[in-house]
Amino acid sequence: MEENFMYNLTLEEYAKLCGRSLASFKRDFEKIYQTTPGKWLKEKRLAHAKFLLETTDLNISEIVMEAGFENTSHFARIFKNQYGHPPLKFRKLSLETV
Question: What pLDDT is stored for residue 91 in this prediction?
Fold first, then answer.
């Protein structure tokens, strides 16, 4: 998952890549990471999007695609929930602190 988080794969596809059934993949994943695969993917993608906002000039649509999200409005909503500001405001504030 570390190498493929930015691709829009289903959990079934991740399980198949590991040679496991979906149930055993989820069970083993939760034992190792103490979270569900879905939550882990969301956090990883949000962190990557945050990094891209702070370090690149990519527009929001490009960041959405690079981070593995499908929907810009969904991304903006969950980004704001995670980091307290919508993506563009977050970028502006991060540039002001540099």
Answer: 95
